[in-house]
Amino acid sequence: MNATTKPNTAFWIIAVVALLWNLIGVFFWVSEYFLMTEEIKAALPPEQLELMNNAPAWNIYVYGIAVFGAVLASILLLMRKKLAVALFGISLIAIFIVQGYWIFAMDIVEKMGPQALIMPLIVIAIAIFEYFYSKGAARNGWLA
Q: What pLDDT shows up at residue 3?
């Protein structure tokens, strides 16, 4: 049996911030697929609405795996469970699929300009950080 060591204060801060960040992701997923009214759609830029309407049907599922997987991973990280590493990994793969499709197949730069890359790249960077941070936490013996 592996003994776990007590994590430092930074671990707890990072784990809580990760949970809050990922809950924001769930909020955006729910908003986009279940709370988007015609009035809200009418207020969006036409380019963004066109991209949303042309997204493939599988996007809702892969996006859901990304955000709900990350929330569950964040909860498991707070519970100090090694399963958090695997779930952050699954979420990261889903994020690569969704954001990669958004960036390359839907060609957001041409349709919305280079500033449209900022948020997808931030999401990818944070997901990479969460995955490798959880791996480091497991390696340090903070997760059981």
A: 64
